[in-house]
Amino acid sequence: MGLESTLESLDLECSSPSLWDDAEKAKSLLSERSRVSAVLTSFRVLEKEHKDLAELAEMISDSDDRDFLATINAELQSLKLRISQKKTECMFSHEADANSCFLTIRSGAGGTESSDWVCMLLRMYTKWAESFHKFTVETVDSVDGEETGLKAVTVKICGIGAYGWARTESGIHRLVRISPFDHAAKRHTSFASVEVSPVVDHEIDIKILEKDLRIDTYRASGAGGQHVNKTESAVRITHIPSGMVVQCQTSRSQHQNRAEAYSLLKSRLYEMEMQEKEKRMAQDHQNKCEIGWGHQIRSYVMHPYRMVKDLRTGHETGNVDAVMNGDLDAFITAALMRGSLAKVQQSGS
User: Fold this and answer.
1) Whose CB among 99, 110, 304, 312 lies 3.0–4.6 Å from 198's, allowing a Cys bridge?
2) What secondary structure does DSSP assign to 286-302, as a single string?
């Protein structure tokens, strides 16, 4: 079914007199209609841009102005990328896919190697977010490694659709390379886990009781200057029923750190709730497991050959440098397509 037909079908359902007999279903339908309408509008805008550029390119095809021709070609390539991204966004299916997100990377088996691997992944995701999608990236919390790198880092990726794009990156990422920290130049294997959860907005209801929270303040560590280290501006929130702990220390303001930590807690609790719901529906879900061989989603091999391979979809590339510089969309699209096919197969069974 095309987007136009889908929108017509949704319009018909939304105009039904019995729409609000089931408030939850009504809310879901209206949200889906809004999403499909926005995607359709975007495609129409892109279609017009493509038509205008194609006509302009035809008009100046015999021109000797190489700079102008290069500009038109660059515009066409940019448009091609945006069309490809918009096609991927058609596979967004979660209610929070349009939201910003939190992304946490934690080091696993591998010691110093894994702490360095966390930094490499942080750079990769930052490049992907900022260069390929024009999202902004803000550091929420970080824990330094014992010798180098980071044990853990949490960033907030801000932009429409950030969660939809990033959510399939959750899982274990494995690196194989010749260690720059090993004088014997031996091959090492490192692991890091990536966890993605959406920033929960007012449209998503997550109930958190004050009595279920323990809030601690402490002196921030790492970057931030002497003022940060001398005041208890950092905030740690423990959700007692689940045992979940979140923290934030990036701002000099305890109030701002508390607000950001609370937002992160809501995000994690929402993600946990969604995973439980998917379990009950027998859909693919993510289990918390030891950061090692279990639940790997992607391997990054830099020696003895060079290859990045997604273990869920089979998508792979030998251009490791491009991937480490943020070129992840092909992997993400393949993962989203796999998820969409799984849902179709389940609904038909």
Assistant:
1) 99
2) -----SSSTTEEEEEE-
Q: Where are the alpha helices (DSSP H) in 60-146?
A: 66-89, 112-127
In the chain, which residue ranges form alpha helices assigned H by DSSP? 3-14, 23-59, 66-89, 112-127, 162-166, 225-230, 254-280, 320-324, 329-348
Determine the angle formed by the axes of helices 66-89 and 329-348, rounding to 10 degrees. Answer: 30
DSSP at 210: G
Dist. CA 92–CA 299, nearest whole Å: 25
Q: For residue 174, what are the contacts with CB-CB under 8 A and spacing of at least 6?
A: 189, 190, 191, 296, 298, 299, 300
3-class SS of residue 312: coil
Q: Are the CB atoms for 143 and 97 separated by under 8 Å?
A: no
Is pLDDT of 117 > 90? yes
Q: What is the pTM of this model?
A: 0.75
User: Taking residues 252-268, what's their average pLDDT?
Assistant: 94
All domains of the chain, ordered by start, with CATH? 3-89 (1.20.58.410)
Cα(187)–Cα(183) distance, rounded to whole angstroms? 11
Residues 202-239: b if buried by 16+ CB within 10 A, e if exposed? eeeeeeeeeeeeeeeeeebeeeeeeebeeeebbbbbbb
Q: What is the pLDDT of residues 284-305, one digit of tens each?
A: 444 444 565 558 999 999 999 9
* Order of strands, sheet of 150-158, starting from the edge strand that comes earlier in the sequence: 136-144, 150-158, 101-107, 187-198, 171-178, 296-301, 307-310, 316-317
C-alpha torsion sign, points 218, 220, 226, 227 = negative
Scan for tokens 């194609």, then name that residue. Answer: 54
Check whether the bond before 304 is cis (ω within 30° of 0): yes
Query: C-alpha distances in angstroms, 74 versus 42, 49, 64, 85, 134?
Result: 20, 13, 17, 17, 17
